[in-house]
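I'd like us to work through together how a protein chain folds, taking it slowly. We need material for that, and I hope you will provide a protein of your own picking. Go ahead whenever you are ready, and we will take it from there:
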Amino acid sequence: MGLLITGLIIFFGLHSVAIVAPAWREQRVRSMGVNAWKALYSVLSGIGFALILIGYGHARLNAATWYVPPVVLRHVTFLLMLPVFPLLLAAYLPGRLQARAKHPMLAAVKFWATAHLLAIGTAPDVLLFGSFLTWAVVDRISLKRRAGGPVPPRIMIAHADLIAIAGGLALYALTIFKLHALVIGVSPLAAQ
């Protein structure tokens, strides 16, 4: 679990700088330059994310079970996962869905993490998904409180919502029927 915890600390530590130390972040951006800051941020975030993946994979091998969710929650998990991929796509496709969700990426993370917490009760899963859920909630609250700069006018993409919804649902189906088993090693459709 050490690698998983280290990865989570690095990843969320970086992603929380704007929440807990926005002035410090702005000073670093000014002194380093935007591109250097983004490069350093990306490299360190990538290292943190890689440690999360490797640590999670190792931790799952001998995971302690903290709770066993009722089988009915598997169905709730499938429902909660429905908006995840459309929201992820909407984060990059300026349309009404993006505008209404305000922060569609954070909403997707909250749905994804909650769904998995309802379905899996092992220690690494609770740590991983609980961390993502906690961070997404805290970040969303902080975004409401932070004074934002001027918002540039958005150029809406024609059919952005249709692309986000259709593409997102296609990704959802592909994940359930193929990708989850291929990437994670567990089929969500497998009998528990």
